[in-house]
Predict the 3D structure of the following.
Amino acid sequence: EAGVVQSPRYKIIEKKQPVAFWCNPISGHNTLYWYRQNLGQGPELLIRYENEEAVDDSQLPKDRFSAERLKGVDSTLKIQPAELGDSAVYLCASSALGGIGLLATNEKLFFGSGTQLSVL
Amino acid sequence: AQKITQTQPGMFVQEKEAVTLDCTYDTSDPSYGLFWYKQPSSGEMIFLIYQGSYDQQNATEGRYSLNFQKARKSANLVISASQLGDSAMYFCAMREAPYNQGGKLIFGQGTELSVKP
């Protein structure tokens, strides 16, 4: 079974340029997450989707970041324009559980290998 | 306030020995889940083990076990018989319930484990 697939693996851009990351979750997983991991730190949630609905985007910097999951399968995260502080690893994850009202404390996330972004 | 604290930035262990990675957490919610993930240099986060707050016994998965001390709010990961392939970053994470009210997975800052031959 294929895992979570992300592309590109690495991206180097100049500040003020746009950049996009793509994620294909594990087949059948209805919940998709984008995390950002700064150097030497743990991942931090940017946005969570259940199917095509963004149910938690409270930590997404909406002035420059956008995300979409139009058909409830793969997803794209975009930054426009990129700033030096956006340099980080962007991780995508998916899970099979989810849904409003479920006490899914044991929901296990499967992660992709991430996209390492360097903004010069 | 820091929800998950990993106080060991780096750890060394001799191959075949056991090692304990520390994790303390902070929550007022009686229902929560604790996770450990491994992140090798390839970057992928690999799930290792899960412990629910109501679980009576400590979780075990092969060479991994979780030393859950609820009163002390600690969830240490024990790796027995360390192997060279265990060298990686290890992250402790917590989820509070209910998820739809902000119980997202929160990670600690990680511990870098190096296994010496």
In short: The interface with chain A takes residues 4, 31-33, 35, 37, 42-47, 50, 52-53, 91, 93, 95-100, 102-105, 107-110 of chain B (CB under 8 Å). Chain B has a mean pLDDT of 91. The two ends of chain B are 39 Å apart (CA to CA). The longest strand of chain B covers residues 88-96.
